[in-house]
Amino acid sequence: MSASPSRLPSSTEAAPLARDVVRGLRASRIREVANAGIGLPDVLPFWFGESDQVTPSFIRDAAGRALAGGATFYTHNLGIPPLRAALADYASRLHGPTAVGNVAVTSAGVNALMLAAQLVTGPGDRVVAVTPLWPNLVEIPRILGATVETVSLDYGPHGWTLDVDKLLAALTPGTRAVMINSPNNPTGWVMPRAAQQVVLDHCRRHGIWIIADEVYERLYYGHEGTGVTAPSFLDIAGREERVIAVNSFSKAWLMTGWRLGWMVLPSALMDDLSKLVEYNTSCAPSFVQEAGVVAVQEGESFTQDLVKRLRGARDHLVAALEAMPGVDAHTPEGAMYVFFRLDGAKDSLALCKQLVREAHLGLAPGSAFGDEGEGFVRWCYACDVARLDEGVKRLRDFLGR
Ligand SMILES: Cc1ncc(COP(=O)(O)O)c(C=O)c1O
User: N or C of the chain: less Cβ packing under 10 Å?
Assistant: First the structure.
């Protein structure tokens, strides 16, 4: 009789484990808070970065038509030609001439970030990231064996600001890449054009890659952008420079669950990117890509209405929070979060768990976004005002106890 190949390890053998670097990754603290609310039926969830609205029907209908028409096969690694063409037109309209050969379709923004990092970073590389920050940007280069150093935004009377000199000092020669997310999750900070220019010039001099996470570029309420979009590195960099801009359908067209995104990058990287896509996902789903064409080509008025609604929700929530004792809130310039300081949130993870259990209010702990986020909580305001009001009431009652 032959031995069973799947016998359990004896108690003297070590359990099978993932690589050290993977075991060292931080688990999501937002998820940890959400888990504390499992089983509570009436929790108001403001913790995740998505709207409470479904994707608009003209996009869902397009996906239905594509499925009915048989769009169920693999596509080219870099995306279907009509979607790449539509995205090149879109990027050209927003940020200046962009060729199809500079655009690749990905399986949402997070996959685009992983591909960008795989393209230009590897074991031992030094990567710098501006924080507080959605954790994926810090953890992804670490999965690849890179070392990530963070440079914190500063918090002051005008909210979060970047000390550009501090960032430049960290971008030493030999640094491989800098990861910048603007508009920023969680703070809503938007990198000013002048700062982008200084960082671009510096990175040009030292051959440092800029990985620009611009998935919130359309959720912008300031005046420095083009009117419909936040300042972008694509506005000031040539397409063949060391800049990779990552984008997504998730935010501007409410398509989080579809997993569709794209990146704009130098054409010289395309053949290598094509290989990486092959070994990661092979391609984005074909019927989703077809719906993406409709979103890009017919979705402009939807996006502009969405931004108006979000601006109203933002102003409503900030006004309510500012009126609350113990809360220090500022009006964010972009994205869809208010990241506010709360007296008594010294351990924001513990506080957010308590808020879920006792007030049935779901907020994200600031510490999920880096040490400098401790003491803060993040509230996603992409929902109707009545729901925001009920959340504010629960927070007020909790703090008043
Ligand atoms: C800063 C940032 N980048 C990228 C993403 C990725 O979004 P998706 O993978 O849904 O495109 C998110 C999602 O919340 C985000 O907050």
Answer: N
